[in-house]
Design goal:
With 110 residues, the protein is of the alpha/beta class. Helix content is 28%, strand content 21%. A four-stranded parallel β-sheet has the order 3-2-1-4, sandwiched between helices. 24% of the residues are buried.
Length: 110
């Protein structure tokens, strides 16, 4: 028998799940930073875990990462190996859906 898993939505908000669970963000350009910064305050509430796959490491990216790490997010550099599971994966627009990075995230997401 399959359990009925109806997603609870936030009333008055268009398609806003009450619980986001574990979320991965791919990329740390403008979009990736904006999404991660939006999600960080949700940790411990609507969000159980936030993992940012940030791409190549540099001084600016490491400085940014330090702030979100203090808030409880995990930030990984220099890897395209996405290890889940994640209920939601948000890819920056510059990441091709045909790339191995995107495909790894797709396999790790529900």
């Amino acid at each position: 028998m399959v359990a009925n898993t109806v997603q609870q939505m936030i009333e008055g908000r268009k398609q806003a799940p009450a619980q986001l669970g574990r979320v991965a963000v791919l990329g740390l350009g403008k979009s990736g930073c904006a999404v991660a910064e939006y999600l960080v305050p949700l940790l411990g509430g609507r969000l159980d875990q936030l993992t940012v796959y940030a791409g190549p490491s540099n001084a600016d990216a490491q400085a940014w990462a330090e702030g979100v790490r203090r808030a409880g997010a995990q930030v990984l550099f220099d890897t395209e190996e996405v290890v889940g599971p994640f209920e939601l994966c948000i890819a920056s627009p510059g990441i091709s859906q045909f790339s191995p990075f995107y495909q790894a995230a797709k396999r790790a997401s529900g």
